[in-house]
Write a structure and sequence with these properties.
The chain is an all-alpha fold. It is 69% helix and 1% strand.
Length: 296
Amino acid sequence: MVLGGAQHTKPINYIGLVCYKCTILYSHDFVNLLSGKNASKICYPSFSVGRWQGPNLWCIMMALLIVKGIAGLYNINRGMGRVAYFTVREEISMITREKLLEIGQNGLQEAATIVNEKDIQLVVTWLLEEDPKVRKRSLLLLQNRSMNYNDVYHFWPVFAEKLRSDNPAQKSIGIMLIAANTKWDKDNKIDEVIDAYLACLSDKNPTVVRQCIQSLHMILPYKRHLYLHIADKLISISIRDIDVVERRAALIDILEVLMVIRKGWYPDEVEQYISLALAGDLLDQNDKKRIKGMMW
């Protein structure tokens, strides 16, 4: 591990060397000068440019010592900063469950830039953990990583398999990670799993249904060829089959996705669905006003 940066330390060390030698050679004179004893007997060195007198020499040497002290502090602080940085980097790159849970909400994005391939493999396995805290934090770390890097996309088959899980938590994880990695899907693997993804719209768990709808916002910008297929499935959702408490929120989720599709395509079915929703009594006036505002 390199500390301090060699390109900065070398010139500073020359100054330190001069100061060190001056201190050793004239330490006795310094003591006398500062104490006032035998000041008149102090012997000052002669330089090629002429003879320097006591006060001038004293100022120069003190200035050199001050420079040496500042340089030392600079190198120590810089070195400690680099040590701290590499220590954090090293610790995160050897991730454990405990370290994962210690990462604060604000630190997830930074941690996501540091993890390596082996870490990602390990974190993907933790998506199956029984501890919901470990599962959630693993999901968040992978989502943050997927924002700027495509290495989580390599686990696409794992996420696709979760879409068919009987476990609502695993199904939600599959939904969110498929959506988060669609931006990296240059081979259009989404075409092979879109039916399994949209089948989650009929799930008995309203949380899974809403998660599926909301995550479509991450798919639509990259897969315009799926607009009509997605719109057809959304329109086919039976709102009455959704839990009463979640019906209004689910309808708003559907309408917000349809508004995005509507900007690129104008199928009559989409227009009719939106019109009926605005004419119905499930949405309140504020909801209708907001939806209408999105139409123009």
